[in-house]
Amino acid sequence: MNSHISIKNLKRYFLFLSVILFMACQSDDDQPQPEKTINGFWLAKDKGYVIEITDKKKVLYGVNSVGCTIIEDNFVPEESFGVALALIGPNELIAEPRLSASNIEFRRLLNQNEFCLPQQIANTKDPKINFDHFWNIFNDYYAFFETRKVNWSQYKSLREQVTSENFYDTLEGLVLLMEDGHVGIDDEANNIAIDAGSPSLFSRLNSSLSGDLIIESGEDYNKLYNQKLQTIASKYLNNKVEIDENGKIAWGLIGDDIAYVNILSMEGYGSNAKNELETLNSILDKIMSDLKNSGVSRLIIDVRFNGGGYDMVSVNIASRFLDQERLAFSKKARLGDGFTKGTSINMTPKGDFQFTGDIMLLTSPLTASAAEVFTLCMKDLPYVTMIGDNTNGVFSDILTHTLPNGALIGLSNEVYSDANGEVFEAIGVGPSEENRVPLFSNNDFINEKDRGIDLAIEILN
Questions:
Q1: Rounded to an integer, what distance in angstroms lies between the CA atom of residue 238 and that of residue 256?
Q2: For residues 175 and 444, is the Cβ–Cβ distance under 8 A?
Q3: pTM value?
């Protein structure tokens, strides 16, 4: 039941939950006017979140069509995460996550949400009640039933068969139908960690493997992953590799005339969210300076090992390879039977030097989430050629809710599209047929080579 590989930690989406209230401090006024105070109830309808703010407490609720759960009862926000909160007029609250591509919009509720009255807060281990919440959370907020070819309504009747003994087995069977790496269940108290994308990911990674190289466990995966990186360092970079302090990005030269940059993650460059982009851009300044001083005109960017992170990290990296201002991507969230107003993200050239020579962009099924957002930023540049395999096909920020029993539920709530309006959810972004190369193959491991890099060198030459 436990997942071996988690493309993106379910708890990551709590980043904004952990900080959006940091400006909601206790008022110094004895009797603040309602239209001027942040106190009250606030609803982010597309996310299913209700915030209750008073002078004495801050409570965050998760709401769905059958009820309400408390996500955090005694909330102590951390200002260091770097999220701004703005009261826009008397009835609108905007959370502006520094690292996300869109804001979280809350509207003031005149009265407490009808599902979140004190006597109606769900806090129980009853399997049927928990199933009701689980099914309705997905029914209310999941954006890709049609894309993933899942007829969700037919599974509502499973409620009658759910018991304490088969509860998580039942839920696991349902989430695995989606084959979505941003869908999962995490119940630490019961040692439950289910990632709906792991089986299909294993299948894709095994497509060119056989015998003893077949991936059957996390240990198998880690062995091949590390072996592949070692081959790249020794066979192609002659073990002359620069790497940032946190091990998130590495760069060097292949021979004397081709540069290589391996972006291993779209997060973790700074010590916290507040200094993430500042630290990242300092690292990028160093990389771009090295590229400029090397005089090379050809570059391989490798995101085959990148499981994602933050959208704005991806945009900041892509900005170092732009020839002009461009539309990067657009996104919208499911809202009822429709969607929220779309948000478009533009990117502009950044830094003292932008590399706009020939670029080979390497991708794989491990390229997921914000790393796929990076491919949306890069793929249509006239000097970029994609090589490898389709990316994972999971773009949405993970929307996290809590079941009455305390388990975390993660799901995909947002639809991303490229500059032309095309959506790549489930299928991923990939190269043309003649440039397809698997990340893992028997031939590569036996011969200690990397066919993806070899093909990139061939095309560049």
A1: 11
A2: no
A3: 0.90
What is the pLDDT, as a whole number, of residue 35?
Answer: 55
Give the bridge partners for 51, in sequence order: 42, 60
pLDDT in tens, 364-408: 999 999 999 999 999 999 999 999 999 999 999 999 999 999 999
d(CA 102, CA 397) in angstroms, rounded, equals: 10
Dihedral angle sign, alpha carbons of residues 18, 34, 70, 4:
negative
The SS3 call for residue 31 is coil
First to last CA, the chain: 48
47-77 b/e (C-beta count within 10 Å ≥ 16 → b): bbbbbbbeeeebbbbbbbeebbbbbbeebeb
**pLDDT tens-digit series, residues 325-357:** 999 999 999 999 999 999 999 999 999 999 999
What values do phi and psi take at 447, rounded to 5? -100, 5
Comparing CA positions, the residue from 299, 442, 437 lying closest to residue 378 is 299
b/e sequence 269-279, b meaning 16+ C-beta within 10 Å: bbeebbebbeb
φ, ψ dihedrals at 332, nearest 5°: -150, 160
In whole angstroms, give the CA distance from residue 260 to residue 242: 10
